[in-house]
Amino acid sequence: MTHRVLVYSDSPKHIPELLTYANQLSEGGGVTMVTQDDKLVDLSFEYGASRVYLTEPKSTSPYDATTTSAAIFEAYNKEKPELIILSATKFGKETSARLAAKLDAPLATECRSVSFTDGRIEVERMVFSGNGLSTEIIGRTPAIVTLQSGIVEPRKNPHNGETEKLSIEVKPMTQTLEVRRKSETSAARLEEAERIVAVGRGLQRKEDLELIRQLAEVLHAAIGGSRPLAADLGWLSDDQWIGLSGHKVKPKLYVAIGISGQIQHIAGMRDAKVVVAINKDPNAPMAANSDYYVVGDLYTIVPELIKQLKQRV
Amino acid sequence: MPNILVTVKQVVDVDSLKIDRATNTITTVGVPRKMNDFDKNALEEAIRIREKQGGKVVAVSVGQQSSRDVLKEALAMGADEAYLITDQSIPEFDSRAVSHLISKFYTKFGPFDLVIMGEGSVDHFSVQVGPRVAELLKLPQLTYTRRLEYSGDSVVAERDLEDGFHVVRSPLPCVVTVAQEINQPRLPTLKSILAASKKPINLVPPSQLEINADMLQPVVTTKTVVPPKTERKKVVIDGSKPEEAVQTLIKHLTQEGVI
Q1: Which of A23, A53, A240, B59 has the fewest Cβ atoms nearer than 10 Å?
Q2: What total number of domains does chain B contain?
Q3: Residue among A61, A89, A98, A271 with most chain B CBs within 10 A, to mutate
Q4: Gene3D superfamilies, per this entry (chain A) (predicted)?
């Protein structure tokens, strides 16, 4: 069975992956891209879009869900796809929900997989703050999903498709007064980092972060933290927050220092490959979520770890 | 003086979930229920606005009769009125159905100046009811808000998105969804709990709202929920002798090829 799929993403680096996944799902039914950025047209054809709708004028400002959902809605009306896929970014999610209401359609957010099974659409997504993997059935089409990143290897699949202009009359309902960029470094460093040292409430004083910095330096690791440190106490900046509402990371090595391991935190680091934790409490929930759990005082273990790691180099 | 609508949801306590060993599925049967954490932040924000500006905070929930508990809690925190949209013949409403019910409630019981919701709920975290309601009512939406200023005819929200903090002004009415950093929700006092117990929880059957049967028809249903697969080795290393403990740890990490 072939299926028609429509794709939109606010994250250019996610587009190759979304289009690759959409092409697998469509089984030759055709994948259409909608974008506000003419610079993304060629990229879309390179990864298998058979048609691209380019919004005009560029009135559909990025980060305005009202105009962006209107643009996708226009493209939907021309194509009548069974499935619409967006990125599971915060903007992708708020836009997908607004679009879902326009179409009175089902929506499943932050999916890890999507499949057409027995004429229905089945998705997998995390629920219960990361404690459950849920399989959900979408009962009617058109259906909308937002997809997490990192679920398929992007594959080039060049098409000579057509580009069509899509004129959008809708105006934004809100006015952006200011955007304060997060330091590119810490946010990007965390989500793409191969190694992360994360610290939690076990740290007694803000000055003691120096110890964590030294460890991160010998490990060539990025620094993150649990909610109390990053959001509540403000010892770290809030773009260093790892957890359900913070960043979701997937490093090869995750070292959790003085982190008790509340489920909201676990939800942010579940995809780490090897997890080390250093914690005084042998029964903290972190123990069950670690590969190597050192029961001890971080103030003696961490300096020793720094010392021995330095000796290795 | 603003009339503020706040949505509250009763969710399972995700810390107390049980696994049915026979089927390896997660069961919510008999698991304690509580108010969705994010909704406490939404209530707190609404109550703070009312304390400064006057007006009224109306709490509404969609769910089973047991959701009375979270509405009692909302009243105890300081909400002025509480409404429960409930229909015993429908055990569960999906996000689409809830959005239809809330927007019809808004139209019937309004006008409201502001709708404040949590950015998501800790159970399904599908983060869609806020923007859906905004679209159904053709209102602006301000999601992922971590700071909010109300000024009579507009609000300014600081939104936390991946690339930065977006400061956005919206005319009223609008729909705001809040992140947990926005405030520290107050705890009800004994006095406020007693006062709340005297206030009514108004039941609203969907038939009282302009709802058609299709709007309540579930379109997304859960088939199974299983524990996530990540299995950890759970090797415990005694750290009472730091030097040896760290030697052991480094040996393991070298074997894993991560250092």
Answers
A1: A23
A2: 1
A3: A98
A4: HUPs, TPP-binding domain
